[in-house]
Amino acid sequence: MKARLKWVDGVCFMGESGSGHAVVMDGAPEGGGRNLGPRPMELLLLGTAGCTSYDVMTILRKSRQDVTDCWVEMDAERAEVEPKVFTKIHFHFVVVGNNLKPEVIERAIKLSAEKYCSASIMLGKTAEITHDFEVRAA
């Protein structure tokens, strides 16, 4: 996997993924940025949510769950001193659908957390990662 990051101005950077997609990262105005894009650590958190959500949805589809909507809300804490690594991350999945089986959703989240999601497994080396979920009828 390859990627490229180019400095734009101040603390603003343009990242390009190996698949050719671009993203702007910037800092807050009090840190010298212009707030033109998410912070790098925000992208790391969002990427981790994307990784685990991809796994969960794939497992739920294979399990023939009739999912009509799904999102994950994250709450993260970082260390007070440098390096300000994530110390706690909580993922709250909301799965909406018809005749959903909570035990299947719980299993999908557990499989992602323990076996498939490279990002959360990697972040789990420094952060306490927890998960919960709720099921809503479509």
From TrEMBL:
Stored Gene3D superfamilies: 2.20.25.10, 3.30.300.20
Lineage top rank: taxon: Bacteria
PANTHER family assigned to the protein according to its UniProt record, in alphabetical order: PROTEIN YHFA (PTHR34352:SF1)
Protein name: OsmC family protein
Organism: Paludibacterium denitrificans
